[in-house]
Design goal:
165 residues; alpha+beta; Ubiquitin-like (UB roll); 2 domains; four-stranded antiparallel sheet; two-stranded antiparallel ribbon; 7 helices
């Protein structure tokens, strides 16, 4: 849809499309979107984009599209944190811990020991808090932190995963 239609939230096809979705008995979500508007925001600095959205009493549809897509595909993501970097990983919801660890590195899946559930605020594997070992059948369900323990010859790895909502 055009930028003008997106900002005014008026388009002659939106009600027809909504009626069509209802007639199908579908609970699919309809998210109005303007490529023109999103491109304009993308080309602006963060401050200018926020100001432009405030002036026009609207906001980007991208966060909603991403969250809805993740939900529809039943995906969750988690982060691993090391001394020098933080990385994000995506897995299917309810993925067993060894398989989730395998997305980081195949050795993690092959040599998986246990998944240890920790409170979200806990970023190191052995700091206090509730939790404890969950074993190989632990499923990745947000918003928990899971310390994935795996071993290899002469090495121990611990990767802290923090799934988002």
């Amino acid at each position: 849809m055009s930028e003008k239609n997106y900002i005014t939230k008026k388009n002659k096809y939106l009600p027809k499309l909504a009626d069509w979705l209802k007639a199908r008995g579908s609970d699919d979500k309809m998210i109005p979107f303007s490529c023109e508007f999103e491109q304009k925001l993308f080309d602006m600095s963060d401050e200018d984009a926020a100001k432009y959205c405030e002036e026009n009493a609207t906001r980007s549809a991208m966060p909603r599209i991403i969250k809805t897509g993740y939900h529809a595909l039943q995906l969750v993501h988690f982060f691993t944190a090391g001394a020098d970097e933080v990385r994000g990983w995506t897995v299917k919801k309810e993925t067993p811990a060894p398989k989730a660890a395998g997305t980081i590195h195949t050795d993690f899946e092959k040599n998986f020991i246990a998944g240890e559930r920790r409170p979200r605020e806990t970023l190191t594997p052995r700091e206090g808090g509730r939790g404890g070992p969950r074993g190989k059948q632990h499923a990745c369900v947000p918003p928990t932190c899971v310390c994935l323990l795996a071993c290899a010859p002469n090495r121990w790895w611990c990767s802290r995963g923090v799934p988002l909502r």
